[in-house]
Design a protein that fits this description.
Structural class: alpha/beta
Order of helices and strands: EEEHEHEHEHEHEHHEHHEHHH
Strand content: 5-15%
CATH superfamily: NADP-dependent oxidoreductase domain
Number of domains: 1
Distance between the termini: 31 Å
CATH architecture: Alpha-Beta Barrel
Number of strands: 10
Helix content: 25-40%
CATH class: Alpha Beta
Largest sheet: 8 strands, parallel
Length: 335
């Protein structure tokens, strides 16, 4: 084992400049209410509000209490599902951390009014008094970082949000928005990026180091490559169409999964997905894998309570793929 203590759900990470604290592992809820990519109400008949409730309850029981959503997930349905889950058990609100995102579409030139309106609407769909972490979904706004910081500061001043973050920002953009927020008495809490053994780019280009320097928490979405790193798929059995992130040829993915299997066997038969999540946690990120049901939630939680050796970390980093760079990724993902 490495010298560091194994990560536990109780190892809370404070978000800079706030009283919000998150565990080293969360849950991404893109699939909740989404038909186009994840098949809810479509090809995946097993993904239902009942199975989501089981994933929610199992995650919370395991101490995985960070849930990340967005106004665009399922056209707002992901937020509404979380709202219904919270309404069904109001006492759980004190235990969970709810994060959501504002879509800064280029045509939203009055970004201050647009963000405030979006935040209020998200708060209503979620049924909460305040959003714990509110993030700008991507670096696609035509407005300056000062304008975006003004908008976030206004939402914070109104009491709609407790902490503010961004998503898909480069190292340079992260430093710029962080500086703009500091000038307004706020701190940048997080930068949510696609980060996994199939997209190690943030580690290679210094983005993770930048986040560490600034006290910004990297949240890693698609941390198991939209299911590709679980071992469920292979070159002979590719994932469903539409899962465009980490879309390497599966023959290349299979070589990474083989390393994950080898290392997992040395740790009491940990699954490939659990090893992939453990690597991210060791690199200083907070992974937010999806969970469609109780079993997936428990599998994700199994990434905690143990750790990788220094040699295993090196082997996995050496096996990691840099990432895909299609046109849409270049527009959307700067980090």
């Amino acid at each position: 084992m490495s010298d560091a203590s194994p990560p536990q759900a109780s190892d809370l990470i404070e978000l800079a400049g706030t009283d919000v604290a998150i565990p080293p592992l969360g849950v991404g809820t893109w699939a909740w209410g989404d038909k186009g990519t994840w098949g809810m109400g479509g090809y995946d008949q097993s993904l239902t509000e009942s199975s989501i409730r089981e994933a929610w309850e199992a995650s919370i029981a395991a101490g995985v209490v960070l849930f990340d959503t967005a106004e665009v997930y399922g056209g707002g349905e992901s937020e509404r599902i979380i709202g219904r889950l919270l309404a069904a058990d109001p006492g759980v609100r004190q235990r969970v951390v709810i994060a959501t995102k504002f879509m800064p579409s280029p045509w939203k030139l009055n970004v201050g009014a647009a963000l405030l309106s979006a935040a209020r609407n998200s708060r209503e769909r979620l049924g909460v008094d305040v959003i714990d972490l509110y993030q700008i979904h991507g670096p696609i706004s035509l407005r300056s970082h000062d304008a975006l910081a003004d908008a976030l500061a206004a939402a914070h001043a109104e009491g709609i949000v407790r902490a503010v973050g961004v998503s898909n920002y480069s190292a340079k953009e992260t430093r710029s928005i962080d500086a703009a927020l500091r000038r307004r008495g706020l701190r940048l809490a997080s930068n949510q990026i696609e980060f996994s053994l199939l997209r190690s780019m943030p580690l290679r280009v210094g983005l993770i180091d930048t986040c560490r320097d600034l006290g910004v928490v990297p949240l890693a979405y698609s941390p198991i490559g939209q299911g590709r790193l679980t071992g469920k798929y292979s070159a002979a059995k590719p994932p469903p169409r539409g899962r465009s992130f980490s879309a390497h040829p599966m023959a290349e993915v299979d070589t990474v999964v083989a390393q994950l299997r080898r290392i997992g066997e040395a740790h009491g038969d940990r699954t490939p997905g659990q090893v992939a999540l453990a690597w991210l946690i060791a690199e200083g990120a907070v992974p937010i894998p999806g969970a469609k049901n109780r079993e997936q939630a428990l599998q994700n939680a199994g990434a905690l309570g143990w750790g990788l050796t220094g040699e295993e970390l090196k082997d996995l980093t050496a096996a990691a793929l840099y990432g895909t760079r299609g046109i849409s990724q270049r527009i959307w993902q700067h980090g």
